[in-house]
Amino acid sequence: MSGAGFDPSSLFRIGYGLYVLTTRAEKDNGCIVNAVMQVTDTPKRLAVAINKQNLSCDTVSETGVMNINCLTESAPFEVYRNFGYQSGRDADKFAGINYERSENGLIYLPENNAAFISLKVDQALELSTHKLFICDVTDGRVLSDETAVTYDYYQKNIKPKPEKPKRKGYICKICGYVYEGDELPADYVCPICKHGISDFEPIE
Ligand code: FE
């Protein structure tokens, strides 16, 4: 990341999707992830990266299972707010939400979901801020013919445009959170999406 002309926004052009990852320990939980990819075909395996600050990372480490719900383009911002902008440590993310269970006992979303895929962890790799799980596919079902959302589509069409704050500050390019203040502390981490200061830019 030390190239003289490195633009962090170049990484936003990678074609991610957006997914609700569901887990269950003492209670059901879910979080938003974007780093999901198929890595082998025989056997069918996926790699999933989860931020260690998410409760779901601990739960997947303990239980070794998860469901990936492939959000559709028409999924409203409320779904992202519910699963991505609060912690399962404080909130029951399934209160008032329609859900069903797959054969592994985990929740999947019957709405706003193009497909769910059930995974069983084969290996886990420690990657400082994240854990990368290499998983076997144990089940999967298509739920809608609608197009699954991409990160780019979310950024352009779903994420609310931030309101202009009155004070000087910095905005998180990932989730839109605004830090108000003259100087961003070097070790600052976005309280919403957990990205560091390299993903913040000053507000004009
Ligand atoms: Fe953020």
Q: Would you report the number of β strands?
A: 12
- Radius of gyration of CA atoms, rounded to a whole number: 17 Å
Report the β-strand fraction as a percent range.
35-45%
Terminal residue distance = 25 Å
| Share of helix, binned | 10-25%
> What structural class results from the helix and strand content?
mainly beta
Distinct ligands = fe (iii) ion
- The overall pLDDT, averaged over residues, is 93
Give the H and E element order.
EEEEHEHEEEEHEEE
Biggest beta sheet summary = 7 strands, antiparallel
Task: Catalogue the unreliable spans.
Answer: none
Based on CA inertia axes, which overall geometry fits? globular
Please give the order of strands in the largest beta sheet: 2-1-5-8-9-4-3
Number of helical segments?
3
Structure explained in plain terms:
- This protein is mainly beta and about 200 residues long.
- It contains 3 helices and 12 strands, in the order ββββαβαββββαβββ.
- The strands form 3 sheets. Strands 2-1-5-8-9-4-3 form a 7-stranded antiparallel beta sheet. It has a 3-stranded antiparallel beta sheet with strand order 11-10-12, with no helix packed on it. The protein has a two-stranded antiparallel ribbon with strand order 6-7.
- The chain is globular and about 50 Å long.
- The mean pLDDT is about 95.
- Fe (iii) ion binds near residues 174, 177, 192 and 193.
- Fe (iii) ion binds near residues 177 and 193.
